[in-house]
Amino acid sequence: MKKDIILAGVGGQGILSIATIIGYAAIESGLNLKQAEVHGMSQRGGDVQSHLRISDKPIHSDLIPHGGADIIISVEPMEALRYKPYLATGGWFITNSNPVINISNYPKMENVKNEMNNFKNKVILDADKIAKDMGTARSMNMVVLGAASNFLDIPYEKLEDGIKFIFGRKGEKVVEANLNAMKAGRKIAEQNK
Amino acid sequence: MKKLLLLGDEAIGQGVLDAGLSGAYGYPGTPSTEIIEYIQRNPDAKERDVHRTWSANEKTAMETALGMSYAGKRTIITMKHVGLNVAADAYMNSALTGANGGIIVAVADDPSMHSSQNEQDSRYFSKFALLPAFEPSDQQEAYDMCFNAYEISEKYHLPVMMRLTTRLAHSRAGIIRKDILKENEMHLPENKDQFMLLPAFARKKYQHLLSIQDELTKESENSPFNIYQDGEDKSLGIIVCGLAYNYLMENYKDLESDYPILKISQYPLPRKQIEKITSECDKIMVLEEGMPLVEEMLKGYLGNGIKVIGRLDGTLPRAGELNPQIVRKALGLPELPSEEIPEVVTGRPPALCMGCPHIDTYKVLNAVTKQYGNGHVFSDIGCYTLGYLPPYNAISTCVDMGASITMAIGAADAGFFPSIATIGDSTFGHSGITGLLDAVECKANIVVVIMDNDTTAMTGMQDSQVTGRIEQICMGVGVEKEHIRVINPLSKNHDENVKIFQEEIDHNGVSVIIPRRPCIHVYGKKKK
To answer: Which fold has domain B227-330?
Structure first.
């Protein structure tokens, strides 16, 4: 078993929480893991990415090679497109469709949508809206994780344990909100299948 | 045993703690910061009362660590690559004093300059100083090597460098821990002149340092981290250093030939293995993260000896970090099928956060300096360097820690007016105070803007040494009290702040303006 995952987004959108939960679930499942992160200057509203590699065999490189990723998971549509060179033939493209427009030259949404539609295997969902409708706008990243959960080859319960592990100290309510957000994302992905 | 999921930096933190650390010293700098942060929040470190607060800069950190080593205890100093320039005086001389308690100098290099102003390779410093160095290829090695590094350090009485690069420092993997070693008892050096570098002593110590180089080479030859993997196809031998080993192994399964490989993770270079691979193979490829140190040594100045390929002949790019696809190409393997970045994708550079106090300060600066034309503001290292970018375009320079103040003095000496420096509170504490002393001494006509956001923001909210004492420091250095002005950078104070800036620009002499408002991230944390 091997899953190479590119996580993408804008600094502050919570991709590291997604990475931590998948990482926790992978380690709990007895798998090997390497996860490269971006710290420092780019975190200030810039583009951020994390390379997450899970395997039952030893993992060498901390970085995923171009053409090697099984999945792109992104919380922002243009950021998802930025990592297209990493995606392997037949890989899955899973992204939030709601843009973060903090630059003056953000492309036309129509063009972004056209590009996204070029992917054969994809799940595109408005995770911000889904989270907001549930009254937990801040759990947008967990909606995206839910949408990707079917493609990870990791038992869903382990991901739930991961949420309990990282949000546990914030209280029962926060854990519940994030579990529900992940469930909602998973449901949408299943409907799209 | 259960694995601990740790960043490379954190693996070093756990490694030194388990190997008997008594004190960690350093200054925050990407990608090294998480070593000390990990030690700071570690319950065992708290229980043992391991020293773990930040130092004013890398030089004070290195010297303080020398003091702890003098007293017989194990210590670590952490910094980014450019921090070693600041600590260089202490580091270079520590090669002669040597260590009593074990010393690890952990330096995290940043090839490709993700968060840095250059990509210098710290291995050159260890070679320059004639000191041993370790270069882990993964997180487990980073952890394990802490034990070996202290052993070598105490066996030869020398500081040992631990060289990391960004992708290891900031990548997580599972670590298996070893048995924990006890901290050293306090004991002074057996030789009472060990730390005395009067010339007569220093000359002897230098001879000694030269004389043990062969022994250090033997240590490398016998190191469990320098691995010779023989291969049948001798048309190429691959010498691969530190992290680059992973990129080689990532592609290894696709290679049709079985080339000999020498993995190097401990320096000085293992001579015996280098001799073997170079004498048996027709050609040598060197894969190293950073600058072509090993490649240059093998090739020689004239390049008329062994046939070596790598960064110098274009087999690999001369600059920037390696990655799996660059190494793949160098090995002559076909690229994996992949597509281009779609054209609609535009750059998203980092920016000052919404509500950042620096934004209001730069608006004031821009309003005041407009009348004088462009290029009047010298700046420094920190979040506020982003003030160069639109829409602010507020500053003109960023060179090294503290250079804003001293460059402003030099420009004022040349007759440039107004000459303004912007520097953050933590950077001021690191290397700005001595520059301000120069300004006072020569009565420079400058305005120094110390942007006090109550923290070291860029590297992730570490305590700043000068919090709560900036005015006293400025007065102590000799700035006149009436020309130290504290303002609150809020848009409602804009007009008043413009007036204050104008008054201090018009003052002929050294003025200090302190825009003071906490970083919004600090403010958010304190509110909770």
So the answer is: Rossmann fold (3.40.50)
Total domains in chain A come to: 1
B contacts of A30 (beta carbons < 8 Å) = none
Phi and psi at residue B515, to the nearest 5°: -70, 120
Contact A78 B386 (CB under 8 A): no
For residue B268, say if its preceding peptide bond is cis, omega within 30 degrees of 0. Answer: yes
Find the domain containing A130 and state its range: 2-192
Instruction: Show residues of chain A in contact with B246, CB under 8 Å.
Output: 60-62
In angstroms, the CA A46 to CA B432 distance is 29
| Token duo for residue B12 | 């070093």
Spatial distance between the Cα atoms of B373 and B376, rounded to a whole number of angstroms: 8
Type and span of the H or E element at B511? strand B511-515
Superfamily of the domain at B357-527: Thiamin diphosphate (ThDP)-binding fold, Pyr/PP domains (3.40.50.970)
B 226-255 residues with CB < 8 A to A:
243, 246-247, 249-250
Strand ranges (E), A37-137: 47-55, 69-74, 87-96, 122-125
Average pLDDT along chain B, 528 residues, taken 10 residues at a time: 89 98 97 97 97 98 98 98 98 98 98 94 98 98 98 98 97 96 98 96 98 98 98 97 97 93 98 98 98 95 90 97 97 95 94 93 98 97 94 96 98 98 97 98 98 91 92 98 98 98 98 96 65
Closest partner CB to A66 (pick from B30, B336, B346)? B336
Please determine, for the modelled complex, whether the ipTM score is greater than 0.90. yes
Asked if residues A166 and A145 have their Cβ atoms less than 8 Å apart, the reply is no
Amino acid B343 reads E
Q: Is the CB of B29 inside 8 Å of chain A's CB atoms?
A: no
Could you tell me which residues come within 8 angstroms of residue B423 by beta carbon, excluding any fewer than 6 positions away?
Answer: B379, B380, B382, B402, B404, B405, B432, B448, B449, B450, B451
The closest CB to that of A45, out of B33, B340, B351, belongs to B351
Q: Which residues of B touch A99 (CB under 8 A)?
A: none
Provide, as residue numbers in chain B, all residues whose Cβ is less than 8 Å from the Cβ of A37. Answer: 7, 170-172
Distance CA A102, CA B448 (A): 31
pLDDT for res A43:
66
Fold agreement between B227-330 and B357-527 = yes
The answer to pTM > 0.90 is: yes
Domain map of chain B by residue range? 4-211, 227-330, 357-527
Q: What is the pLDDT of residue B528?
A: 46
- The pLDDT-based confidence of A39 (bands split at 50, 70, 90) is confident
Q: Which CATH architecture has domain B4-211?
A: 3-Layer(aba) Sandwich (3.40)
